[in-house]
Amino acid sequence: MKTVIIGIGSLLRGDDAIGIRIAEAIEREVLPPNVEVVISTAAGLALLDLLTGHDRAVIIDAIQTRRGKPGEVYRLGLEDIPAPLHSFTVHDVSLRSALETGRKMGLPLPSETVIFAVEVANVTPLRESCTPEVQEAIPRAVSLVLGEIGRGG
User: Fold this and answer.
1) What's the half-sphere exposure (Cβ side, CA atoms, 13 Å) at 59?
2) How far apart, in whole angstroms, are the C-alpha atoms of residue 115 and residue 145?
3) pTM for the structure as a whole
4) What gap in Å lies between CA 141 and CA 22, rounded to an integer?
5) 3 class by beta-carbon count within 10 Å (0-12 exposed, 13-18 middle, 19+ buried)
6) 39, 43, 100, 112 - which has most CB atoms within 10 Å?
7) What pLDDT digit, counting tens, does each position of 113-130 carry?
């Protein structure tokens, strides 16, 4: 099973870099040869290029919920992501909508997609470091992602 792990974020927006930081930590681990780690700032339809040709995808990103505590790690499925009511640009397209569009176009996309999202506190622009609570989530998130890829072969 060919797996892609995609760490998404922006290195200049504080906690928004958490997906990238976790992917960087995973890259330092010994991974099976069928697992590829990708670091990206892409969103929406731009993710299709990274997902095409893989059987399984693990996406790592930041999330802000109403009641979440910074540093909490959530395991989500595509069904947990609400479909947007409208979209004005390709950047507004959710992961779920992007995958639906790619499948309609006939792209060979993953049959399994899991999202690990870390609750963040501060995504203020022009700040390179994560808040301490979010930074402390990295080892736990790495462990969860490695456990996930170990389950599927």
Assistant:
1) 28
2) 9
3) 0.91
4) 7
5) buried
6) 39
7) 999 999 999 888 788 899
